[in-house]
Structures are given as C-alpha cells and as structure tokens.
Amino acid sequence: MKDITTKITAPILLACISLTGCTSTKPVTQIHNQPSEGNRLLIDGFEEENFWYTSKSREDNSLSTEITDEWSTEKDNCGMWTFSRIPDGKQASFSCSSLSFSDWSNAKCLTCDINNMTKGSLEICLEIESGVANEKTRTGYVTLGRGENTNVYFDLQMFKPCDSEEIKKITFIIRGENSGGRIYMDNICLFR
Predict the structure, then answer these.
(1) CB 101 within 8 A of CB 156
(2) Contact at 8 Å (CB) between 31 and 150?
(3) Is pTM, for the whole model, over 0.90?
(4) Which of 73, 104, 124, 187 has the smallest number of CB atoms closer than 10 Å to its CB?
(5) How far apart are CA 122 and CA 89, in angstroms?
(6) How far apart are CA 20 and CA 31, in angstroms?
C-alpha cells in the first residue's frame, strides 16, 4: 500500500506544479474598466496639434510622438508614442505642458485608452508637475497587457499635487524591461 501511495502522489504533485507554472511568464490581461462617473473634461483626444514631447535626458528611452489615424477609440486620431528598448531601471517618458485645463482641483481620476503594441506587458504611471515650485507627484504604476486597454485609471484622490489649481505639466512614464516599440494613446480625460 505504501508503494501505491507514493506512485500516485508523485504524478499528482508534478501535475500541480505544471498547472501553476511560473507567474512571470503568465500573460498580463488587458484593462477594460467601466467609464468613470463624474464631470468629464477631455485633456487630449489627439484630433488637432501634437502637444506632446519626449524627454531630452540620456536616461530616457523615448524616441518620438506623432498623431496618427492608425488606431483610435473615439473620432479619427490618436497619439503614437515610440520608444527604444527599455532596460531594467530605465524608462521612456512622454510629456505635455500645453494643457487645456490647468485647474485640477477636486479631480477624482484621469483615464485614457492605450493600445500596447509592444511584444509584452509594460507598466505606466502619471507624473504631475504643479505650483510655483514645479513640485512633482506620481501615481502608482499600472500594468498594461498587450493590445487594447480601455479606460486605464490613474487615481488622483490617493495623492494631492501641491497645487492642484495650477497643473503645469503631465508626463506618462513607461517602465519595465521591454524590447521597445510603440503605444497608441487616446481620450485622455480628467474626471471631477
């Protein structure tokens, strides 16, 4: 009886190990949040001029920003942001200092639609620069699956910019070891 138990237990144990697998190879699912509630203010729908720019820092791997009609979730265009390979500990950042709304008082969240065209998942956060002293505040990172991610949510109630009535610049920061590529960005909205 002892031999039978050992023979049955070993295959079951191996099956359990193979089913759980390694969590680092498991694909990250796409984000499809419900639209946020509240007063919606469109920050950028990418239908006019390109107000976004890349960092000039050597530590940054962003390459270019353009407006394109290759993808969109509303109307005709979106932003296309391209970046080179991002090694561990590095980032790519895309900024805008020509904001249509600089008063973000009572803001609940910022949402956007992102089509991740890279070969894998990536992490993105929002950095806000505000006030006379240009103080910077960041949200937590959100992990994006490959492909379309809709209503990606950046909680603005978890932190308070030093001067929410005078937002000067916003920056989306991408990190995570990545071979590079591009993302499409559309419908950046502030909700109050």
Answers:
(1) no
(2) yes
(3) no
(4) 73
(5) 13
(6) 23
- Give dist(CA 63, CA 174) in Å, integer: 12
- Residue entry with tokens 């065209």: 117
Give pLDDT, residue 17.
32
Give the gyration radius of the chain's Cα atoms.
21
- Distance of alpha carbon 143 from alpha carbon 118, whole angstroms: 13
What average pLDDT does range 14-39 have in this prediction? 65
Sorted by sequence, the CB contacts under 8 Å of residue 133 that are 6+ apart come out as: 162
One-letter identity of residue 145:
G
End-to-end CA distance of the chain: 68
Instruction: State the Cα–Cα distance between residues 72 and 115, nearest whole angstrom.
Output: 9
Alpha helices by DSSP H, the chain: 2-20
What residues have CB less than 8 Å from 6, skipping those under 6 apart? none
Backbone angles phi, psi at 10, to 5 degrees: -60, -50
> Is pLDDT above 50 for 4?
no
105-to-8, 38, 63 alpha-carbon distances in Å = 63, 14, 32
**Distance (Å, rounded) from C-alpha 77 to C-alpha 98?**
18
